[in-house]
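For the sake of transparency, this paper describes our internal protein records without simplification. Because each token names a local backbone shape, the row as a whole describes the fold. One such record is reproduced below, unchanged from the form in which we store it:
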Amino acid sequence: MSDDIWASLADQFVDGAYASVKGQVRTYVLHQQLMEHLTEPPGAVLDVGGGAGHQSFPLARAGYEVTLLDSSPTMLAKAEQRLASEPPEVRDRVRLVQARGEDAAEATGGRRFAAVLCHGVLRTARVPTAAHGPVGAR
């Protein structure tokens, strides 16, 4: 059995939920709200749990350097497929990284980011205990 919980859900999620009118509107509204709060590009953005890039790719199109970090090889494969259809200048601004959100600092080489997205991640994260310390702390 695979540890990738998205292996059996990726198609339904990416090609179903996000491809629906509701999913497209949701992505558009979220992007507009993000743009109101982000500094002008260029800037570095980390998208933790970025999945297939639905939030990352519009930011890359806008000129941000985006690191999409996800623990799911299946979702990263979906992101890679979707990224292939973007223009070269957008593809060059996106880096795909397989790692857990808790390991983001190590996986990104300690890079600092102007913004960090965790859209939809915290509701699926396990609740840290006192032994774990703050999320992402090591």
About this structure: Residues 131-138 have pLDDT under 50 and may be disordered. The first helix runs from residue 10 to 17. The helical segments are 10-17, 21-37, 56-61, 73-83, 88-91, 104-107. The longest strand covers residues 65-70.
